[in-house]
Amino acid sequence: MRSLFVALPLLALAQPVLAQPRLGDVIGPDRARAQASLAAEGYRLTEFETEHGRLEIKAVKDQARLEILAEARTGKVLKVEARKGRGDRE
Questions:
Q1: Would residue 42 be called left, alpha or beta, if left means φ above 0 and alpha means ψ between -120 and 50 degrees?
Q2: Is 50 exposed, middle or buried (CB count within 10 Å of its CB: 0-12, 13-18, 19+)?
Q3: Exposed/middle/buried for residue 4 (C-beta within 10 Å: 0-12, 13-18, 19+)
Q4: Sheet with strand 54-61: strands edge to edge
Q5: How far is CA 27 from each of CA 1, 11, 47, 85, 88, rounded to the nearest angstrom?
Q6: Beta partners for residue 23, in sequence order
Q7: Per-residue pLDDT tens digits for 71-88
Q8: Which DSSP string do the residues of 10-68 spell out, in sequence order?
Q9: What is the pLDDT of residues 18-73, one digit of tens each?
């Protein structure tokens, strides 16, 4: 029981890190759905391009930046690169 009291505060601290799209998530195959999905997690969509059957999406939240690669047809996330500040990778 004691480990539960220790784990709960740690989970609460981990939430901001988890509040971003992950591999396999679907953020939407079009700009409007991707923007809504990212906004629900506190991100602002800054770029949305379709190239070679893939979506290239960039978003920001405070000092955090996301670069997302997703399938153009389904919006399924294939790759997420997170950076904090000026180019620092997470």
A1: left
A2: middle
A3: exposed
A4: 44-51, 54-61, 64-71, 77-84, 88-89
A5: 37, 24, 14, 24, 24
A6: none
A7: 999 999 999 999 987 655
A8: HHHHHHHHHSS--TT-B--SSHHHHHHHHHHTT-EEEEEEEETTEEEEEEEETTEEEEE
A9: 478 999 999 989 999 999 999 999 999 999 999 999 999 999 999 999 999 999 99
Q: Which token pair is 86?
A: 């000026």
The conformational region for residue 79 under phi > 0 = left, psi -120 to 50 = alpha, else beta, is: beta
Paired with 61 in beta bridges are 64
User: Three-state SS for 7?
Assistant: helix
Whether the CB-CB separation of 37 and 27 falls below 8 Å is answered with yes
- Domain extents in the chain: 2-89
